[in-house]
Amino acid sequence: MHNHRIDHLNRQDVRIDEVIIHSFEMGIYLVEADFDGRKGFLVADNNRPQQFQSIEAVKLALNECLVRQAFLVHQSAYDEMCGGPEKVDNTLRLAIHFSRTGE
User: Fold this and answer.
1) Domain residue ranges in the chain
2) What is the rounded distance in angstroms from the CA atom of residue 52 to the CA atom of residue 23?
3) How far apart (Å, rounded) are the C-alpha atoms in residues 9 and 7?
4) Which of 6, 9, 37, 40 is deepest in the core (most CB within 10 A)?
5) Which helix (H) or strand (E) holds 18?
6) 13: which DSSP letter?
7) What is the pLDDT of residues 27-62, one digit of tens each?
8) pTM of the entire structure?
9) Rounded to whole angstroms, how far apart are CA atoms 37 and 17?
10) Residue 43, SS3?
11) Which of 28, 8, 9 lies closest to 18 in space, CA to CA?
12) What is the rounded distance in angstroms from the CA atom of residue 35 to the CA atom of residue 30?
């Protein structure tokens, strides 16, 4: 898997095919971008995943590039209950609008 840096992606001539914002507990968001056929997480200078505190912070970080489509993805950790059915896929996937969207 590839990694992407915000300063390499956030340019007017960059078109990102898909952005997936992964939502985790405690308001932590990690961003996966599909750019130029390479899917990977946004990383900080130390090559660790860049953490965001909100969806708006992600939008601000990518405010110059063109995002064709974006989604917020969340999986609940509270899907298993005693006596309940087997674990099922409870992934929530919502479309997100960026100010610069593609055709």
Assistant:
1) 2-75
2) 10
3) 6
4) 9
5) strand 15-24
6) T
7) 899 999 999 999 999 999 899 999 999 999 999 999
8) 0.84
9) 8
10) strand
11) 9
12) 16
